[in-house]
């Protein structure tokens, strides 16, 4: 898994690219504070090599909890900036610090 960040000079926004290798998966989405954990709002697109990829514009100077949903299973990204326990989920979430 990979996360890349591109900060825009003209706006207080960061373009975040999420990449998830999941050849056997049929659907991958990224969920978090930024989309109210809605599994349908940020689906990643499957590429020919089996990797799922998507770009989301997020406000700078904010930390977001997030996870991937791979065919209905919640998965953390090992490339997250840090991890934080979430009592509601009963699990650790990845944290993206922008």
Automatic annotation (TrEMBL):
Keywords: Hydrolase. Residues 15-71 form the Glycoside hydrolase family 13 N-terminal domain. GO terms for molecular function: hydrolase activity, hydrolyzing O-glycosyl compounds. This is Glycoside hydrolase. Transmembrane segments: none annotated. One of its GO terms (biological process) is carbohydrate metabolic process. InterPro entries: Glyco_hydro_13_N (IPR004193), Ig-like_fold (IPR013783), Ig_E-set (IPR014756). The keyword Hydrolase applies. The keyword Hydrolase applies.
